[in-house]
């Protein structure tokens, strides 16, 4: 009888110890079963450059140029050089958007600059001793009708001498990563002003990032004091969406155009920047630019990486319950041509601890050289097991 009582006592004690222990023991976690996102990429396009010269085209936000054509070594860039002059001057003497800046008074030295440019058969605009214009107006006269004499006068006003300007300009070029670009004057008349098409695409992007320059290069014509109406040398402005940037023409460089256009894709505006150098004439060049833009523009395509509510992970617990996680947002990107796009999902092991709406991993998409991440959230949480499952499954077996 005593033995029976002992066994019963030990059994009761064991149950009293086991049941609370089993009921409160940690639960086993469930590994995630993930879904690889099926992303449909863009359709391939081919940039159609003209058969002459050299060029490149890119877009703001895209690390590399989209396409190139012809010789990519440094070569003469003609009056595109004036974009460098504008950026270097504004780096030293910045203007806010809508600001005119200080007045510049022209002197006899500026008349001599006019005569020198005239002797070189360069593009110019009239100037008179004592004439006053604001810094912005001088920039406009340099960039819109491509006045070589105003480029030199502006640089000397800003830096004191042409040599001081050239030191500043070449330092500015190096500091902005334009390592294949060099200037030896302010206006591009010299064949020693050289760059590569790829560098010029970056230069154009830098120019458009300055609101003062971006507005000036998109201006078809304007009236200036002491000069009258000046017309933009870029005859493509307003045609097929072209809104900049700078023409250039010399015997060594040929007819040149650094150009830009905004392309709207879905809810995103993409700024395209390109350059073609070495055409025989500007009408021929303009046709080449239009052909290139027509071939490139369809290459910008919106791709959906993830859709809000899209199930990308699930879990099944040891007690038979399930949980799911979905994309927390819809994510779309603009790609160019058949730029590679891929996706992968990572999600942690899960127990009953995750509540609805809590974060549970992420989807990572690789778009070219960029990475885009979309968090996952629990949609259907995992219910905890009932008391009997806990008791029937001892802690050491979980």
Order of helices and strands: HEEEEHEHEHHHEHHEEEEEHEEEEEEEH
Count of helical stretches: 10
Strand order within the widest sheet? 1-14-15-19-18-17
End-to-end Cα distance? 38 Å
CATH superfamily of the largest domain: DD-peptidase/beta-lactamase superfamily
Task: Tell me the CATH topology of the largest domain.
Answer: Beta-lactamase
Shape: elongated
What class do helices, strands and sheet pairing give? alpha+beta
Q: Which percent band covers the strand fraction?
A: 25-35%
How many separate structural domains? 2
CATH class annotation of the largest domain: Alpha Beta
Q: Can you name the CATH architecture of the largest domain?
A: 3-Layer(aba) Sandwich
Mind telling me the C-alpha Rg? 34 Å
Q: How many beta strands in the DSSP annotation?
A: 19
Largest sheet: 6 strands, antiparallel
Helicity range of the residues? Answer: 25-40%
